[in-house]
Amino acid sequence: MSKPDILQVGPYPEWDQIPLQESFHMHKLFEASDAAAFLSSVGESIRGIATRGELGADRAMIEACPNLEVISVYGVGFDAVDLQACRERNIRVTNTPDVLTNDVADLGVAMMLAQSRGIVGAETWVKDGSWAAKGLYPLKSRVWGKKAGILGLGRIGYEVGKRLAGFDLDIAYSDIGPKDYAADWTFVPDAVELARHSDFLFVTLAASAETRHIVNSQVIEAVGPQGMVINISRASNIDEDALLDALENGRLGAAALDVFEGEPALNPRFLELNNVLLQPHHASGTVETRKAMGKLVRDNLKAHFDGRDLLTPVL
Ligand code: 8YV
């Protein structure tokens, strides 16, 4: 039997690429010099798309593949996939939830600690001789005992909360309703109220058209000059211009961010700030998790083409 033709939107590590190629005929869009020409030459043959969370599959890509049956996303976030275009043609969509939850939560908490305690600047202080030349590193504000707000208490938000409880933080959260598995934490329905409560506001919402800029200037200013916003979800959940304005003029104390509008080409205003910790969208970036994500991408594709149920369906 011939291998199903799959459009591959972005690169994968060799440990995924080799087994993908064993089971499927992979067409690497990201290596094409002219993406539109490539799509129109292979589109007819394509039965599946393998993509990455941040790259997704837009309507033009989906429409270029008239025989498309399934899209497998390497990532939990499927906001970059045009679900409406998929629904119209009964195209299945899968993602990689659960396997990355703990790593994403770990990075969020690590960013909070690193930014609060000035770990990056402190290392520079040692390495550039400032310790010897100028003396002690400037004092920082403590973490334990402070108040944390978690905006979006899904799988990742919940794991963030569990970790924060270990740092004796007072935890509140917002979601569409209170969660029975978070009985020890305070439910605050309104995002501005939550922000007012928070020294650290964690943004852990699944992104959608409804959550776009949910962290607006009001929310940002409610976190305030002593507070910090930590984003391990999607850039679109925050009004980035409002965030930059507030960071520049001190209406927000600090931010720790793993995601950016237009990444990897982020707004140069970020590079001028000394109250931010900037990370290259790598919250799920451990070897173990990426191997599990890659396996789930393949297993979902195989399940579809074998006529079995999808392991982690979105649609
Ligand atoms: C990326 C992510 O998909 O899970 C998500 O939604 O954003 C990440 O895990 C990852 O960078 C792979 O592209």
From TrEMBL:
The keyword NAD belongs to this UniProt entry's keyword annotation: yes
Sequence similarity: Belongs to the D-isomer specific 2-hydroxyacid dehydrogenase family.
Keyword Oxidoreductase set for record: yes
Pfam families: 2-Hacid_dh, 2-Hacid_dh_C
Source organism of the structure: Roseibium porphyridii
Superkingdom, natural source: Bacteria
Protein name: 2-hydroxyacid dehydrogenase
CDD domains: HPPR
InterPro entries tied to this protein: D-isomer_2-hydroxyacid_DH, D-isomer_2_OHA_DH_cat_dom, D-isomer_DH_NAD-bd, NAD(P)-bd_dom_sf
Domain D-isomer specific 2-hydroxyacid dehydrogenase NAD-binding: residue ranges: 109-283
The D-isomer specific 2-hydroxyacid dehydrogenase catalytic domain, residue ranges: 28-314
Gene3D superfamilies (UniProt xref): NAD(P)-binding Rossmann-like Domain
Keyword annotations: NAD, Oxidoreductase
